[in-house]
Amino acid sequence: VKALTMLSLCLIWTALCAAQTGSPRQQIERAYLRSSKAMALKFADGVASVRAPEYVLVDTDGVRSDLQLERSRLEQLFASCTLLVEDVTIEEFSASARGRVRCKVRYLTRLDTIAGKDIRPLLLDTDCIDEWVSTPDGWLLARTRVLRQELKSVRPK
Amino acid sequence: MKKLLRRLTLLAVGFVLGVVCAVVALKALRSGRVTPASSPAAVINGEAVSAEEFLFDLKLLFGDQALERIVQQRLVLQECKRLNLSVDEKKLAAALAQLDPRLDPRIKAAFDREVRYRELLGKLLLRNVSEEEKRLLYELFYKELTLYELQGILALTTRDAQDLVDTFPVGADFGQAAASNSLDPASKDNKGRLGTLTLPEIRRTFGPDAAAALRKMKPGQISSPIHCRQGPMIFKLNRVYSSYAELKPAVEGMIARSKRLGLGHELSAKAQVDSLYLRVPGPQLPPEDKAGAGALATPRR
């Protein structure tokens, strides 16, 4: 586990260094990796750092929430999970209007929650459309529209 | 003769013991820290509240929290003992030496326990984390972890703030100016000191304009008036802590926080804890992270 953690960290760091001025896709992939690493560390400021100040999330019911609300939701999630592992796959990548980039993304988030003396592993499966905007601080996530979301129980190995 | 000698010896021993007891009792009463159980906990307009009533209420309101905390501490200490983890006694002694020597020994002992517990908890949480890993996390998140040591003055209007900046003599004491001019009651009495904050914390506390301006400032520099959540403010940036050595405790804190809940659960799940007073079976670390148990009821990205 230690070796794998080290390897993943090295890969993230190498990717960050190697493609500091890479293509928009490379930069956005790096931002997803950074966000996932921050999620694993339960570091809300790290997750928020790849989001624009005017970030908006629109859920499956069309309810909108801003960065502040998302951050407080994250804090609640972090407080109830012993383990958080997020895996992001970019399924579609396309340029959109006003210099924005649109990504269809699948998030698979493994959440280990406490249920009495046991750990209850859950899998949050989410399909989103993420809109990225280029800023002096790099590419930042400006809007997330949740297309589908499902929470499943995972049988512990 | 022998009898007389024995009597005299007994008298002398009795006298010495009496003097010792009197001195101890006098000292204890003078320090005012010994409260006989019969003394009232408070007297309100002549009506006494007994110590017994006070202690019962204390137990009722906070008893399980206090016990839960003790259980958590013991679990961590037992695990550290099992893993042969120990505290740096020199560091501990240095921390204890900073305490007021007149302090109640029970408070000193509690402080000793707390410092020991925190030190060991840190070691336990970070025991499998290498220096390399810490450095890599620093490289990833140093922008969010960099600390800014600030002083500030809250003015009534932007014009007042601008006047302060315009008339501020070169090399003058910013703390003095804050004490005389700031409208912020919290920092005014503390020479305008606002603490050492990260950029995300500055953004949340004072607003995005303050974070953007402070990010560009150099240590020692005084800002122009900035529109903050509290009103127009001027800031002085005293120091920026951004090197790995300076931010290593923050990196370690971040790693430790991410593991605390898991460790707490792991220790309590395999422990045998019997108590009549614990309302919640199976204590969990950390107590401040209890909120949000229902977060998964409405999962959202």
Give a quick rundown of the structure.
The complex is a heterodimer of chains A (157) and B (301). Chain A is 34% helix and 48% strand.
What topology does this entry show?
The complex is a heterodimer of chains A (157) and B (301).
Chain A: H1 2-18, H2 24-40, H3 44-48, E1 51-58, E2 64-66, H4 67-80, E3 81-95, E4 101-115, E5 118-135, E6 138-153
Parallel strand pairs in A: 1-6
Antiparallel strand pairs in A: 1-2, 3-4, 4-5, 5-6
Chain B: H1 2-31, E1 40-44, E2 47-50, H2 51-82, H3 89-97, H4 105-125, H5 131-145, E3 147-154, H6 158-166, H7 174-181, H8 185-188, E4 193-198, H9 199-206, H10 208-216, E5 226-228, E6 231-241, H11 244-270
Antiparallel strand pairs in B: 1-2, 3-4, 3-6, 5-6
Report on the structure:
The complex is a heterodimer of chains A (157) and B (301). Chain A is built from 4 helices and 6 strands. The longest helix of chain A is centred in the first third of the chain and has 17 residues. Chain A has a 6-stranded mixed beta sheet, covered by helices on one side. The mean pLDDT of chain A is 88. By secondary structure, chain B is α+β, with helices and mostly antiparallel strands. In chain B, 57% of the residues lie in helices and 12% in strands. Chain B contains 11 helices and 6 strands. A 4-stranded antiparallel beta sheet of chain B has the order 4-3-6-5, sandwiched between helices. Chain B has a two-stranded antiparallel sheet with strand order 1-2. In chain B, α2 packs parallel to α4. The C terminus of chain B is likely disordered. Classes of the chains: A alpha+beta (157), B alpha+beta (301). The interface between A and B is large, with 50 and 37 residues.
